[in-house]
Amino acid sequence: MKKTIAIISVFLLLIAGYFVAQLVAKNKIEKTLAKEIEFKEVSVNLLGGKVEVLQAKYDKNAKSLITDKIEVNGFSYYRFLVNNKIEVDELLVNDVEVVMTSASKKDANPQNSKSNFDKEVVVKNVNVNGTFRFQQDSLRTLKVQHFDVAIDSLGLNSKTLKETIPFQYKDYKIQINQIAYTVNQLQDVTVNEALIQPSVITFNTVEYKPRFSREKYVEVIPYEKDLMNLKMKQLQINDYDYSITEDFKLFAARYIELDSLDFSIYRDKTVRDDTREKDLYSKMLREMKLKLAIDSVKVKNTHLEYEELIQKSRPPGRIFFDDLNMNIYTITNQNLDRADFPETKIDVNTSFMGKSPFKVDWNFKINDENDVFTISGNSFNIPESSINSFFAPAMGMKTHGTVNELYFNFRGNSDQASGDLQIAYEDFKIDALKKGSNEKNKFLSAIVSLVVKKDSKANGETKANPEAVKRNKTKSFWNYFWKCLEAGLREAVMKF
After folding, report:
1. Residue 263 DSSP SS3
2. What confidence score (pLDDT) does residue 40 get?
3. How far apart are CA 360 and CA 208, in angstroms?
4. What would the DSSP string read from start to end of 335-403?
5. How far, in Å, CA of 437 to CA of 440, rounded?
6. Is 300 left (phi over 0), alpha (psi -120 to 50) or beta?
7. In this structure, are residues 121 and 158 in contact, taking their beta carbons and an 8 Å threshold?
8. How do 317-332 and 290-309 pair as beta strands?
9. How crowded is the C-beta side of 335, counted as CA atoms within 13 Å?
10. How many secondary structure helices (H) and strands (E) does the chain include?
C-alpha cells in the first residue's frame, strides 16, 4: 500500500512538475517575445517541443510584420531554460504581411534601432511565406504578391543582428512571384517570378514599362528624356557575391546572361534640351558608389529599336537591330590604380534594320580618367529603305542607292575623336523633301545633287579621314559616335 501511495505521489509530482515547467517555459517565452513583438497568446506543448504564437505583430523602425500564427517545432526547453539559448528544428510562418517604409533620419539612427534581443538562436529549417510591400517615398513603391523563403540552418545572436544580413545560414532558397516597382515618374518595372539561391539568381519575364503614352509623357518631363519599353524573357546572374556595409558596397558575378529582349526607346526632340553634362560610360562606372566585379555579360536574341521625333509635322525617325547578340568582358571599378587594370571589351553582332549584317568592337578602360575608347565595325548591303527609315522623317531627306560596304574605326576620349571610314556605294543620290511632306523639293534636291558623289571610287571604296570631332558634352556617347560616323560619311560622299 505504501509503495502504491509512493508511486502515485511521484506520478502526481511529475504531473505537477510538468505543468510548472510548462508554465515557467511559457512565461519566459512570453517575456522574451514581448521585448520584440506584440501577440495575443502563446501556446506551449512541452512534451511535443511545440510553441505557437498567435496573432503576432512586429512594428518598429519603419518595419511591420503581421501574421496569424508563428509555429515552432522541436523546441529545446532545456537549452532555453538553462542555457538561455533558443534551438528548434523548424520555424513556420505562413501568410505573413511585411510592410516597410523608408526610415526617417531619427529611425535611421543606429541607437534608435538597436535591438534588445540578447539570445542565441539556432533553427534547423525556416519556412516563411507571405506578401511584401516597401514604400520608398511618395512615388516609388515595391510590391511582392507572394514570396516563399526556405533557410537551412539559420543562426543569429546580438552580434549578427548588427550586420546587414542579421543572421548566418548554411543554404537558402527564395521564390518570389509578381514583383512590381515604380522606378520613377515615367517608368515601372515588373517581374513575373524570381528565384534566388546562393549561386544563382534568375528573373523570368521582366518588363520595364512606360507609365504614360508617347503623347502624354512630354507633358510631365522638364526636358528631353527617353521613354523606354523593355520585355525580357530571362535574366540570370551566376556565381554572384555581394558585400553591403555603411561604407562599402560591392556586387560581383562571374557571368550574367540576358535572354530574348525586346527593347524600344522613344525620344521627343521637340522638348527643350537637357543641357546637363553627360559622362561617358567609363566615367559613369568609375565613379559609381557601388563597386563592381563582373567577369562577363551576354545579351542574346535581342531586338533593339530607337525612334526620335524631331519635327511635329513628320513621323519619328526609326532604326532597329534584329538578332542582336552582345558580349561584354570585364566590368570592374575596383582597385583603379593598379598597373594591370583590365580593359573592358564589348563585341556586338546584329542585323541592321533586319537586312544588313552589322558588327561592332568597342573597348575602353574604366580607370582611364581621359576616358579613351576605340570603336570599330562594319556593315554590308544596306538598302535605301533602311537608311530612309530614319533619314527621311528625321532629316527631311530621302536617299537612293545601296551601300555595299561600310567600315569604320574611331579612337577618342572625353573631348574629341578621330579615325577613318571606308564606304563602297553606287548610284547614290539624295532628295530634299518639302516641309511636313514626303514629296520631293525639286529645287533643293537639284542643289544637293551638285555636292553629292554618285558613286564611290572606281576601285570600289572611298576612304575618309575626317577632322577630329569635338564632343558635345551635353549629349550622350551615342550622339558622339553618330557625329563621328556623320563626319566620315560627309567627307566620303560630298564632292567638296
Report:
1. strand
2. 85
3. 26
4. STT-TTPPPEEEEEEEEETTTEEEEEEEEE-TT-TT--EEEEEEEEEE-HHHHHHHHHHHHSEEEEEEE
5. 8
6. beta
7. no
8. antiparallel
9. 6
10. 8, 20
CB atoms within 10 A of CB 15: 10
- Return the closest-CA partner of residue 355 out of 387, 389, 381: 381
The chain-wide mean pLDDT, for the chain, equals 86
What phi and psi values does residue 485 have, to the nearest 5 degrees? -60, -45
Q: Where are the alpha helices (DSSP H) in 100-181?
A: 105-108
Predicted confidence (pLDDT) per residue in 375-396, tens digit: 999 999 999 999 888 877 766 7
User: pTM for this one?
Assistant: 0.87
* Residue 104 scores a pLDDT above 50: no
The single residue listed with the C-alpha cell 567609363 is 282
Give the total residue count for the chain: 496
Residue given cell 565613379 in the structure block: 287
* Residue range 438-466: mean pLDDT, rounded: 68
H or E stretch covering 67: strand 63-73
Q: What is the mean pLDDT of residues 157-185?
A: 88
pLDDT score at 303: 98
Rg (CA), the chain: 32
Torsion region of 420: left, alpha or beta (phi above 0 gives left; psi -120 to 50 gives alpha)? beta
Amino acid at 189: V
3-state SS, residue 413? coil
Q: How far is residue 43 from each of residues 24, 35, 67, 125, 354, measured CA to CA in Å?
A: 13, 18, 15, 20, 67
Of the pLDDT bands very low, low, confident and very high (cuts 50, 70, 90), residue 110 is very low
**DSSP single-letter state for residue 159:** T
| Strands 416-432 vs 469-470: parallel, antiparallel or unpaired | antiparallel
* Residue of 167, 335, 174 whose CA lies nearest to 250: 335
Percentage of the chain surpassing pLDDT 90?
Answer: 58
Confidence bin at 85 (pLDDT 50/70/90) = confident
Q: Percentage of residues in the chain with pLDDT exceeding 70?
A: 83
CA dihedral for 160, 163, 166, 167, sign (positive or negative): negative
Buried-state track 380-413, b at ≥16 Cβ within 10 A, e below 16? eebebebbbbbbbbbbbbbbebbbebbbbbbebb
Instruction: Kindly report which listed range (96-110, 218-232, 408-422, 465-479) carries the lowest average pLDDT score.
Output: 96-110
Q: In terms of DSSP bridges, do strands 249-268 and 290-309 run parallel, antiparallel, or are they unpaired?
A: parallel
**Which phi and psi (to 5°) does residue 217 adopt?**
-65, -30
The single-letter DSSP state of residue 452 is B
In the numeric block, the cell 560581383 is attached to 252
Q: How far is it, in rounded angstroms, from Cα 78 to Cα 83?
A: 8
41-45 and 171-182: which strand pairing? Answer: unpaired
Q: Which pLDDT value is given to residue 176? A: 97
**Rounded Cα distance, 477 and 346, in Å:** 15
Strand locations in 137-248 (E): 141-156, 171-182, 187-196, 200-210, 226-244
Adjacent-strand bridge partners of 141: 135
